[in-house]
Amino acid sequence: xSTFPGYIPELPGIAxxxxxxxxxxxxxxxxxxxxxxxxxxxxxxxxxLPGPLYLSPISGVFIRHRxxxxxxxxxxxxxEERLSLTVNLPNNTNYELTVVSIPAEHCPGSVMFYFxxxxxxxxxxxxxxSTSSTYLARYFSEIRPVIVYLDSTFxxxxxxxxxxxxxxxxxxxxxxSKLLADKRNVVSLWxxxxxxxxxLFLKLFEGLGEKIHINEKQRGTYMxxxxxxxxxxxxxxxxxxxxxGTVKHSKHSSVLACRALSRSTETIVRIIRPSAxxxxxxxxxxxxxxxxxxxxxxxxxxxxxxxxxxxxxxHFKPGVQEVRLNTVVDGSDLVRKTQLVNSIxxxxxxxxxxxxxxxxxxxxxxxxxxxxxxxxxxxxxxxxIPEQNGSESDHSEDEYPNCNxxxxxxxxxxxxxxxKYG
Length: 422
Description:
The protein contains twelve helices and 19 strands. It has helices spanning 21-26, 57-66, 135-139, 165-180, 198-208, 216-222, 226-229, 306-315, 331-358, 363-383, 400-403, 407-413; strands spanning 14-16, 29-31, 53-55, 74-76, 82-88, 94-103, 111-116, 121-124, 147-150, 185-189, 212-213, 232-233, 240-241, 246-250, 253-256, 268-275, 289-292, 295-299, 322-325. The longest helix has 28 residues, at 331-358.
């Protein structure tokens, strides 16, 4: 869940993914990365926003139908389109702001925002997970942030690997096919959010030819997307459900909530849970499907894994100087994630310096230096990441960048102290 406070100090007068009374008093321009509840706080307030709300066209459809009070202030921002704005501040001053929206591939309509002023270059990722190996090259070749607000949901060594969403979707489709072969079975999808699984719905329909039952509240928005109309239905006799969940019928069985009044015992409800949190320490060779007490778990993540975050951050080096975390559980989580970010960016700098040094020294020294750099990178990763249960006072985020390097490398790591992470 996002813990981003809604504002960026370097960009006064704008609010992102937070729309409560406090933000409305400070901001004149608003941005929405995507339509999940933890990014829409404050939109339920009856008064319309006191300024334009920039969002993707897909998110615009959701907002205009779920929160009609804001319909007149929504402004569609097309992906990769550069928008120039004058941000007016309460003290009668203003400044020029350029914004580019970038597909975040977290869910339909999700975007990142890249902001530029005369003095700042800031990338706000919202939630994201790329679906293509060409994602960075395609969208970020001209993006040069100095500050990154990062989706840090799985900035954790325990979540180094997730299967791709295509792989997870194929597994869910295969599982549904096997379950539905028994005519007594119906499938209930226990989804991680009320919206955002539209791609899964479409692929299940394409693969199985089975419509997915949704509730009336969902239909009110989804029916404005023609490609979803064919895949979704309001008929609760459908065999795949993403509507209202299940309710206990007896100690060993459940019934669909949408059929609870019928008290029918002719069907057997099979629950599939696409999620990521339970899948710690998953390896590429591991199975990413488990059955537990009749509940079928599939590893399915709309957030970037740790290894994907590493690749993402290193793409912006050496320009990025500060990473701010969008998702932090508590103080110890902040310390642990901050040190991971430091290690990621420091590792990149060491590797680059080693390459430059190798151009000017003998081959034997080059081999030795490579081994020494590897050793010290490993020390950073293994020795200076606190356990998740450790207290904030047990570790200092500044203790590792210099003290554990051999003397011949310490002088070069001194410059790392200038980076401010957190």
